[in-house]
Amino acid sequence: KTPTSNMSSTKVKLTPSDDPDNFIEVDETVARMSQTIKNMLEDLGGADMPIPLHNVTTKVLKKVIEYCEYHTEHPSTKTDKKEDKRTDDIEPWDKNFCAVDQATLFELILAANFLDIKPLLDLTCKTVANMIRGKTPEEIRKTFNIKNDFTPEEEEKVRKENEWCEER
User: Fold this and answer.
1) Under DSSP, is residue 82 helix (H, G, I), strand (E, B) or coil?
2) CA distance 118 to 120
3) Which of 38, 89, 136, 147 would be a feasible disulfide site paired with 32, CB 3.0-4.6 Å?
């Protein structure tokens, strides 16, 4: 059985930003996980024309489609809104899905935001939050290759101003 065998037979054509002469065909049910695409389909009155996705590359679009296909076939059972704030409740499939290099992870965040796929945006942001959790500012800078542009004096001033939030 293929992952899309019991999904709708109506196809939507999506054109990635890095290959405007080609498109990726996906079931409309899967494509509608994206509020952006759903709105475009409603505005266009159908799925005949390819939908250009100016901010999403082929590589990232394929990952987004993989996520949407899986979650169309395996809908989440979570209903508690407080669960959205937790970062330790990532499903094994989702955790594995996010096991990508940093550049891809950040492209997925941008694509999820642009395509308005809230569950994917939440998942990718939780993944980044987990990468940061428990690290010092120096460790975070090293993890994300962020240059420290504070002078030692400025850094000390910020530390003093934010002393109240330090764990003791």
Assistant:
1) helix
2) 5
3) 38
